[in-house]
Design brief:
By secondary structure, the protein is an alpha/beta fold. The protein folds into three domains: 64 residues, Alpha-Beta Plaits (2-Layer Sandwich); 210 residues, 3-Layer(aba) Sandwich (Rossmann fold), CATH 3.40.50.1780; 66 residues, 3-methyladenine DNA Glycosylase II, Chain A, domain 3 (Orthogonal Bundle), CATH 1.10.15.40. The chain contains 16 helices and eleven strands. The strands form four sheets. The protein has a four-stranded parallel β-sheet with strand order 6-5-8-9, sandwiched between helices. A hairpin with a 2-residue loop joins strand 2 and strand 3. Helix 3 packs across helix 8 and helix 14 crosses helix 15. The longest helix has 18 residues. The protein is globular and about 80 Å long.
């Protein structure tokens, strides 16, 4: 599914949608409503976590990404693949990672730069920051863009806890392009850099340049689409060259806890799956998190990036494969000293902006009037959060009524006398 001009992370096939409210109930930012028997996505609230894609029993939701043929655009004279660490966990019997590298070259790329290499650099830089004593702990990882977006929408008080470092994909893309320019002599714009993504959140973040002034990749491909192209290509590889340049730290970023473990600290917390993530963020915001925690790694997908909806393998099976693969790897093969980049190379070029999607009105007086009406409506509702009204909760339904996008009669559990009371 190609990315639309609006860069929507998820699109809806209305013919397949049955209006079953499963997606609506699972959305962590209440970005989905069901109206006239079909789901509606409020993209200003969407964080690209992919929960709606994962949970839809009718396959009506589709994650967006670039078509693979984008790499063959004639404006690119040199094409670089950026495979995510989770991609390695999709394949059976991949004891030698070089088979995957050779496979990528066979399906159309001229070079590869493993994102796990960038992960090892980010890990080392984070260790450097901890050693400096400048970090305000606990600090929250920013590797998962869905988590960053979630905090920008729902947990504004935690913004200053975010680790202001670029993701491994950003770092890898920048280094890959620089090295290709030196190697080939081509102009930067003549080099195509393409990330192979496990999830729609990373697609959106890289296409829009989250925390970057400008996007650093030319396209973001689906892990599953590349997988089916790679399978036959890898079978033709007999004696792979020594192309892979990653270690245990880098490949471990594919699953929950891998990033935190690479920091060589024992005072960390790792949580995955949106329900668990929300619980951690609520406790952190309320000051209930255990004292002494220094680092918090959160992944929207169950199992971490191996659980992304653009993958093909079960996340737990994929992790088992990765655990087997990393037995043959060194601890780390990429170090800051080898790349000789300034500190500015690794940090955000711009901070993500807080999203006031819950703001009722620009005018404070009008907003207060709406809030009072929302409170009055909420008191009349049955507090069942059943979803039959087309909103994920009674409170969300009350907000819709106050905004004029729903009617009180849409609630099938409220009696006529209460409606008359409100109007009176």
């Amino acid at each position: 599914m190609s990315i639309s001009k609006q860069l929507h992370t998820v699109t809806l096939d209305t013919d397949k949608c049955k209006g079953c409210v499963a997606c609506m109930k699972r959305c962590p930012t209440e970005a989905i409503r069901v109206r006239n028997g079909k789901a509606q996505i409020h993209y200003e609230k969407c964080i690209g976590c992919g929960e709606c894609v994962r949970i839809c029993p009718h396959n009506a939701k589709k994650a967006s990404f670039d078509d693979f043929d984008i790499i063959f655009d004639k404006k690119y004279k040199y094409r670089i693949a950026l495979p995510a660490p989770s991609l390695y966990g999709q394949f059976e019997h991949l004891d030698n990672l070089n088979y995957l590298a050779e496979g990528l070259l066979k399906i159309g790329f001229d070079d590869i730069f493993e994102v796990a290499r960038g992960a090892e650099l980010v890990s080392e830089y984070t260790r450097k920051l901890f050693e400096s004593g400048k970090l305000k702990t606990p600090v929250i990882s920013t590797a998962c863009p869905a988590i960053v977006e979630l905090i920008m929408i729902r947990f504004h008080n935690l913004k200053d806890r975010l680790l202001n470092l670029l993701t491994p994909a950003d770092i890898s893309a920048k280094i890959a392009r620089e090295e290709a320019v030196r190697k080939t002599g081509y102009k930067p714009e003549e080099i195509g850099v393409f990330f192979i993504s496990p999830c729609p959140a990373k697609v959106h973040a890289l296409k829009t340049g989250l925390c970057e002034n400008n996007p650093v990749v030319d396209g973001v491909l689906s892990s599953s689409e590349c997988y089916f192209r790679l399978l036959p290509a890898m079978k033709k590889v007999e004696n792979p060259r020594d192309l892979s340049e990653i270690g245990v730290f880098g490949i471990s970023w594919a699953f929950s806890g891998g990033e935190a473990a690479s920091l060589l600290k024992d005072r960390y917390l790792a949580a995955d799956g949106m329900e668990n993530v929300l619980n951690v963020l609520k406790e952190l915001e309320n000051g209930k998190l255990a004292e002494g925690i220094e680092f918090i790694e959160l992944n929207a997908c169950v199992g971490g990036c191996v659980g992304g909806v653009l993958n093909v393998e079960n996340p737990f099976v994929a992790k088992a494969k990765l655990m087997s693969q990393r037995k043959y790897l060194p601890i780390s093969k990429n170090h800051l000293a080898s790349y000789n980049r300034p500190d500015e190379f690794y940090v955000w070029e711009k901070a993500p902006e807080l999203q006031d999607v819950m703001r009722l009105d620009e005018n404070l007086d009008v907003a207060m009037e709406k809030l009072q009406r929302i409170n009055r409506i909420t008191e009349l509702l049955p507090a069942l959060d059943c979803g039959s009204c087309g909103a994920p909760s009674c409170r969300a339904f009350a907000m819709d009524v106050a905004e004029g996008t729903a009617k009180l009669t849409d609630c099938h559990r409220i009696d006529l006398d209460k409606i008359l009371t409100l109007k009176g």
